[in-house]
Amino acid sequence: MTDCLVDAIDIDRSFPDGSTSHVSVLRSVSCRIMLGDRIALTGPSGSGKSTLLHILGGLDEPTKGKVTWPALGARDTLRPEKISFVFQTPSLFSALTIIENIALPLAMAGKEKQGIARAAALLEALELVGLATKLPEEISGGQAQRVAIARAVITKPLLILADEPTGQLDGQTAASVIDFLIEAVEKTGSALIVATHDQRIVERLEKVWAITHGQLSTFAPAIKSKRRIP
Ligand SMILES: Nc1ncnc2c1ncn2[C@@H]1O[C@H](COP(=O)(O)OP(=O)(O)O)[C@@H](O)[C@H]1O
Ligand SMILES: [Mg+2]
């Protein structure tokens, strides 16, 4: 059994720019996400962080090169159970209550009962019980991001891709949301990649990937996470 969750080899991604040419966003990017990895993905706004996360999560395809999920299987089997996303912007379904939002990935997998039971346990563990029957419009931005994280961990995915999950939060709320995310993946053993501009988040993660001018550099960080997946 391989420990490699995602293997991207020499990928390019370009987009049509409205005329006959293309904007080249990612160029010759190769990277791997291994079981239990904790990765910060950095780069200026518009550098291609979201584009790369979408490709690594199977939401988008590279223009050139190859992405495989050796430990997970074919692209069409990745969601909702093996890979989860946490988006930057509010992503809860406005017509569903908080507990229903959290249970949704399991409900989509045909496990509705298990979903509600596990969502209730998650709400309790996360001290969010009071929010269970509220609607997304009734809770704060920081609470909504915690709920989005609970929704991402409910399937115990092997990989969570978080795209600037604290980008819209103030510093203190951002810090508590990131604590929550790291604690959650430590419980589930999920690998985690977080696109972020926040140096405090980068310091919490074990590896740093940086995109500059379409190219990815990966380097070992000064600060290492103390805990690893057994
Ligand atoms: N669907 C798309 N169509 C056209 N251009 C896109 C599309 N998605 C992203 N881009 C362009 O790709 C570049 C990188 O975008 P993105 O991956 O969102 O960057 P980041 O997440 O680092 O801010 C930007 O110039 C953006 O305009
Ligand atoms: Mg982005």
* Helix proportion range: 25-40%
| Succession of helices and strands | EEEHEEHHHEHEHEE
Q: Look at the helices and sheets and give the structural class.
A: alpha/beta
Structure ligands: adenosine-5'-diphosphate, magnesium ion
Question: In summary, what is this structure?
Answer:
30% of the residues lie in helices and 27% in strands. It is an alpha/beta fold and 230 residues long. It has one domain: P-loop containing nucleotide triphosphate hydrolases (Rossmann fold), CATH 3.40.50.300.
Structural summary, described in words:
The chain is α/β, with parallel strands linked by helices and 230 residues long. The chain has a single domain, classed as P-loop containing nucleotide triphosphate hydrolases (Rossmann fold, 3-Layer(aba) Sandwich). 30% of the residues lie in helices and 27% in strands. It has six helices and nine strands. It has a six-stranded mixed β-sheet, sandwiched between helices. A hairpin with a 2-residue loop joins strand 8 and strand 9. Helix 2 (98-108) packs parallel to helix 4 and helix 4 runs parallel beside helix 5 (171-188). The chain is globular. Residues 223-230 have low confidence and may be disordered. The protein binds adenosine-5'-diphosphate (ADP) and magnesium ion (MG). Magnesium ion binds at residues 49-50, 163-164.
